[in-house]
Amino acid sequence: MLKLFLWLRYLRKRRIVFLSITAVALSVSLLMVIASGFTGFIKAYEQIAVDFVGDIVLQPPRKFPNYPVLLDRLEQLGVVEAAEATLEGQGVLYLGKGNVRAVRIQGIDLARAARVTAFKSSLLRQKDSPDEPSFGMAGEPNTATGFVGIAVVREPDEETDEYDFNAAEEMIGKQVVLTTGSVIEQKEPSSPPGETQFKRRTLQFTITDIVFTGFYQVDKNYIFLPIERLQKTLYPEQQPVAELIQIKLSLGADAESAETQIRGVWQGFVDDQLGGDRYLKEFVEIETAVEMQSQYIGEIRKQMGLLLLIIGVVSASVVVLVSCIFYMIVTTKRKDIAVIKSCGTTSASVCWIFVGFGGCVGIIGSGIGVVLGCIITENVNSIERWISIVSGLKLWKSSVYMFSRIPNEVNWFWALPIVVSAIAAAAVGALIPAIVAARTKPVEILRYE
Amino acid sequence: MYKLILATRYLLKRRITYFAVLAVALCVFIVVVVMTVMAGLVGEFKQKNHDFSGDCVVGSESLVGFPYYEDYVKKLDASELVEGVSEVIRSYGLLSLQGRDRTSGVEIMGLDPARHSRATGFGDTLYHRRDDIAQAFVPSYDANLPGCILGIDLALERDPNGEYAYDSSPRRIGFSISCFPLTARGALAGAGTALANTKTFYYSDHSHSGLARVDDSIIYLPFDEAQALCGMSGQTKRINAIHVKFKPDVPLKAGCEEARRLWSIFKAEKANENQAYLLDTVTVQDWKLYGRALIAAMEKEQLIMGVMFGFVGIVTVFIVLVVFYMLISHKSKDIGVLRSIGVSGFDIIELFSGFALMVGLAGSSLGVLGGWQFLLRINSIERWLFEHFEFQVWDRTMFAIGDIPSAISPRVLAMIVLLAIAACLIGALVPSWQAARLKPAETLQVNQL
Fold first, then answer.
1. Which of A100, A254, B209, B291 sits CB 3.0–4.6 Å from B49 for a disulfide?
2. Does A80 fall in a domain?
3. Between chains, do B106 and A23 touch, taking CB under 8 Å as contact?
4. What predicted TM-score, i.e. pTM, was given to this entire model?
């Protein structure tokens, strides 16, 4: 009770204590904002990987045929909810007068893609439609159609970094020309066996929807075509092939066990359908979407760790601040301490009063810091917009930081160690003054001079 | 004189001031290291951009380009301010390695290597033909084959140390390059399968500019070949840009003004030509404006880091404030004596401000010394960490960074030291003002002594 009384009194009477509370709050809020920002970015990056490629990706070392058989077998596994085959390529897209873009082409089965990935939610025109998404144009089933990423047709505004969705949607219905190519085996009698040649292919298609994922790399670089159309364009004289299998797992399925089962299905498929090709069996990569990004995400985590370390080291000077303030309190309150000791309070209790007060300062400061950190993190996009309006400086651009919006989810997992460290730092800072207070001799202090 | 004596005495005798000095030193140390590295990275990036584009770029964003450039180039060549001029073709194309079933979208840059090396730092980026730039497009294994120069990341792999596996001479590799020829109206030249031009070039050298976006996406072709491939070599030839280097003693602004003046004259002369409308899309930009999208992003990062450490610096202000507050509380008798012998309030403020200046100088000096020593060894420390713990600050296989920049900029250093001193002066302001307001009669009372 005495401790609580003294803590409250020092809080009310010694205004300089608020300085240490402010310092703790500032440090905690800065660390929380940094940790939340980085972890939010990592989470968004991992999520976009899952949204774009599904839970697990099966990538053989080269293209392979008969993939519908593989898809059926995979979907028979209890751990697999849906599977989709894709074909990838690169090309150059002619959009209009003088407007030519380098693009990455993905051939997809749209019905399957909607089950494996979150592709439908990124279609500007069809995302809210109750029907299954479709490449087709109404009334023209034979017309070649496709989707393009929004930044392929319209870059975001230079100043606001916002897309003009209306202008982008005006591209729907427009005919564009894609140049791509494939390597085929030479068939002339005079050619040596196995000699290959790059064959240029062009495809005119009509844009029937715009893709906006919020991830700049996809929105800027990708176009999507029906896989059958892309197969016929690239390999007109061959049976349909696929390059990648994207898999969505059933709810609650364990990824590691699923990978093992999928590998078993693949091995069986290669034995039955592809002549038991050892190269295909040994060099296939089966990994989760998150594992595919592990190198890049590892780098982001490292940068986060370094920044938190640097800021943490500087914030450790809060220990010094608390120490100085408490030392000041102890030296000015010597008579109080002497009176308390003369009433029978032990040195340990006196020490504990000040260490506990240090902890209180840490708790109050951390609490304010956490609240401040939450407010800043959750409103970071509004703050960034405000800074942009006031200063004309656009801090966050999707072309630089990949996402259209700054991740703004508070990471409570990091909040706990930050708060605990802040409280511990404040308590440690109070230690030396607490020892000085504990060593006070009432006789010397209360002597009348 | 007494101010200097007292300030020095407080600095040396009062151990509490060591805390303030250490706090300032710690903050200055961290800010010096972080800002030096950031400034080094930004400076290197800017320099690489400058080397890539030359001093000034006269060009059009449109892939159609502009015509009648020969006359303008003659004017530039004749100008006393200009040292080098290089006409350039820029477009997008599809690159395919002979015999491989992979295509990639690339940016094509058609140039004359000797002329381009006089206008930019291109010659210094070459490897095999560095000493004979005019032969850059001549493969050493067969002088009759049309050569091409690849961005280094298109040609070679990097090891974990960031080192490339150089060959003693270029390997005989053929690349098939396809791109769209465009008419002066921006429409596709040709129809059907002739919509794209394709030609095979042979690897003759690689270029290492140090810019990731350049080294992993640009292929350099002989000027005439690129002009033909992009459909710009018709009756009225077109190009996309002219890179200009001014003489060393010519200020950048003056040089660009001259280029702009010559362009206005040239444009007026060509006003009645058939394709004069294409000259309206051409701009004259210095290298900073030309690369602003990327340079601005780096400078913004630097600014954000600076602001973040500014918040951290607030903790330093608090520590100095508390230390001075404590000091002044203990020195109230001294202050009372000084006031009683006629020292004014302003002199008291000056005394403690001078003391704050000494704390700032002492702390800054320690911090700068520590930072300088750390920066001298930063790359050895990173190499040691990599050898023993496989830890690198930046993964060299992912980031286009060589050694960590460690050259301290005097400008950056001066700014940090000034800010540290300013922080100390601000921190000492309130306590100094309170000290100045102390009344001798109150402080020198018997019961206060």
1. B291
2. yes
3. no
4. 0.79
